[in-house]
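Title: Prediction job returns without error message
Component: structure pipeline
Severity: low
Priority: P3
Assignee: unassigned

Description:
Job completed but the reporter wants confirmation the result is attached to the right record. Sequence as submitted:
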Amino acid sequence: MALVLLAAIPAGCDSEQNQEHDTGHAPVIGPAEEARNAAKEALPPSQTAISDKAKRKSALEALGQAMREPKREIRVIGKGNLPVPPIPEDGLVRISPAERAAEKNARQKARLPKKPDLFPRPIVVRAGELRSGETLIRLAGINPVPRERRCQTPDGEWPCGNFARAALQRFIRTRTIACTNMTGDGERFSGECRIGNTDLSRWLVTQGWATASDSALKDMEEAAREAGKGIWKNRKPSF
């Protein structure tokens, strides 16, 4: 009878273990483990953040301490003096430079585009001559039309010099002109002047308000003469 009971006990244990695996239930947690898990879940987020800050602070302090540690001494060679290179027995030979510094600077400067001289609010003295402040500027490549010039037409003469001056002043208005290739003595200059992309000398010739002194503008003068523009008008303009 006793042997039958002892054989039944292991069988019963195996049956309980198999039942636990079959049902998928987790093993039973003891009271101490439950208490630790409950305490961890009950910890406020603020305390967790404080703990993280403390860890970062400790790491920064350790880094600062490492940076304050004295550096290793640098090994000085030759008592701090630079070694002298070996000098040949026949002495040193000075080699002249391939290009002088002044020549090199001048060559590099010539490559840079020259900035134009700016003259604000120019006043037209006559068609082809302007004044900005105390500076008198004569437009290059043309013959300025005198203010007192009068042109003859079948209808009579008219003050074409004043008309030419007024036409240029209306075109310029109060805009700033930009001049390049300026030559002069400090108060009187001659140069190529523009407003935007418009060359003033070419504009005057094509509009018939100046004659060309530069051969490059002669064709423009002939075209204006044939078209009867400016001073080449066939009729006296109405006032």
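Comment from assignee: result matches the submitted record. The radius of gyration is 50 Å.
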